[in-house]
Amino acid sequence: MSVRILFVCLGNICRSPTAEGVFRQRAAAAGLSLVKIDSAGTAGWHVGKAPDARTVKAAARRGYDLSMLRARQVGVDDFNAFDFILAMDEQNLAELRSIQPAQSVAELGLFLEYAEGPVPREVPDPYYGGDQGFQTVLDLVESASDGLIRRLRGVGS
Ligand code: 4NP
What we know:
157 residues; 5 helices
């Protein structure tokens, strides 16, 4: 099985790079090797930049290295280059739906739909808040990553 997954937030410097790094590491640890993983932002403000320093630091404390990632903006080609495009919140999901080409193969949804247990529908934007916001992002992203890995295993790996 080969699955291509794109994680999307607004700036591609906080939530979606966290999802990319966490999911990549957990999928590898779970033995899911045939997975293409990437992340992008609906906005282009931070294109080419490394993730936010607070994001990199919080992730590193949990053993995820995000330092090599660089921000990019979602483009129309992504809708045929990925099987799943998973948004961190409703606003970015709506933006994705508004630019999705008619012939798109990708299935769009919210990443937290894969989380198991009592979690919110959205990963809150931590950019303008304090350190706790970055911990919350990691908690939610770890939970949804494990749920998504279980779902992918269910369809055969
Ligand atoms: P992200 O967070 O969408 O999780 O990467 C943000 C990053 C930057 C901005 C907003 C949210 N910004 O306004 O520049």
